[in-house]
Design goal:
The structure is a homodimer of 237-residue chains.
Chain A lengths: L9 E4 L19 E5 L2 H7 L6 E4 L13 E3 L8 H11 L4 E5 L6 H16 L3 E6 L2 E14 L9 E6 L3 E9 L3 E7 L5 E4 L1 E18 L8 H11 L6
Parallel strand pairs in A: 1-2, 1-5, 2-3, 3-4, 5-6
Antiparallel strand pairs in A: 6-7, 7-12, 8-11, 8-12, 9-10, 9-12
Chain lengths: 237, 237
């Protein structure tokens, strides 16, 4: 794509509601690019992330004011809003992506966004999905270290899933270790592990790594969407 | 496994809360086998499904009374409760599985249960996951027909995802048809389609087929779990 490689992160707000707790401590740093996909533009602004770019079809959110840096796509398109957002980040030279508001709503969107993490891997980039009760990343032929308590605090479960046919996995520093194990995408063996001190996960193949905890929120994602729309000044649909 | 092939369905209640609306019209028919995994035993009973078997480690739900047909597993095990349930059904000769309460909670559990649908496919069986806003099935080298309005009523979105490396897909009877398209698990192209009359989906490879609609529930899965536990006479944890 020719763009200079950027050391900052591309922070992408998708259409689902995002509250302070979903950031898992994330703040905007110098060098970061913040993109709002569809209604995510207003969420990013409300949370103080001053979005650099608004992107999407704006079929389910109002169009930002014309002064905003806008990239409007037709509603009838092949790409999800999330893919449009990561493509915009990739084109600008970013290789680290943090995606917010990409889970917790329609399950098909969540599955699509997990596949988007894999899409990033295949382009030499790395992405993560964040929400208050879940953190997810896809790794490919590499090693990831996760210390106990990272992102979600104590008591989170660590789970690994092969994302293609098979992935050879070595997992140490956990309650149930694996040694060069052929993890299959047709058998969920790697669910609900516990990190002892620091987990070290090596994948030969494509591996979805998740930290999850029992849901803490006292209201549903539907409710959160309604509240978020209200805060953003959008009307109910 | 040697068991005679059964024509009925294995209806499996997992640990997540299930309400009437999540059944999508399902009722128990003669020949069906009903299994409750962990707390799912009480859910099945509450919804009038008279479970034939209780299975699991019962680490997060009370043990059913000793008169129940019980299969108790250690809490420290490799298998998820859902896998234990489908294994019990497979061993009894069932090839059609309907899984309830397998989505809507921790996202790692949901991903595990989507992989369980693939596990069933690889054993010559077929499974589906149901909840009020989502219906999911995995197909492998076969054709599936879905009429408009099936399971979720009008307005549901149809989405397809390659579950292994690549899956060749032909999709007709929809707004955005595909013709022998090499769908990749690293690019979510098949999201949010609409069925015109009857969708006909042919997969060469392993394909996740989902029907989803915007969430209708007015309270969260956390809330539902609390209510469900209260109804089942279980104490809060």
């Amino acid at each position: 794509m020719g763009a200079e490689v950027k050391s900052g992160r591309c922070i992408l707000f998708c259409g689902r509601p995002v509250e302070e707790a979903d950031l898992l401590g994330l703040t905007r740093q110098p060098g970061d690019l913040v993109i709002g996909a569809d209604g995510g533009f207003f969420t990013a602004r409300r949370l103080g992330f001053s979005p650099d770019l608004a992107i999407g079809d704006f079929d389910s959110a109002p169009m930002p004011e014309p002064e905003a840096n806008l990239e409007v796509h037709p509603a009838h398109k092949d790409e999800t809003d999330c893919i449009l957002g990561v493509d915009a980040g990739l084109a600008r030279g970013f290789t680290r992506f943090i995606i917010l508001g990409g889970t917790g709503g329609r399950l098909d969107h969540t599955v699509a966004n997990l596949q988007t993490l894999r899409y990033l891997c295949e382009r030499g980039a790395r992405g993560e999905l964040r929400e208050r009760d879940c953190w997810a990343q896809v790794i490919q032929d590499e090693t990831l270290e996760l210390r106990r308590g990272a992102y979600l605090g104590e008591g989170a479960y660590l789970s690994l899933f092969a994302m293609s046919g098979e992935c050879r996995v070595t997992e140490t520093g956990v309650e149930y270790p694996l040694e060069d194990y052929p993890l299959s995408g047709a058998y969920p063996l790697g669910v609900s592990n516990h990190i002892r001190d620091t987990a070290r996960i090596t994948a030969q193949g494509t591996l979805l790594v998740m930290l999850c905890r029992e849901c803490m929120s006292s209201f549903s994602s539907c409710e959160r969407r309604k509240r978020s729309k209200k805060k953003n000044g959008q009307s109910e649909q």
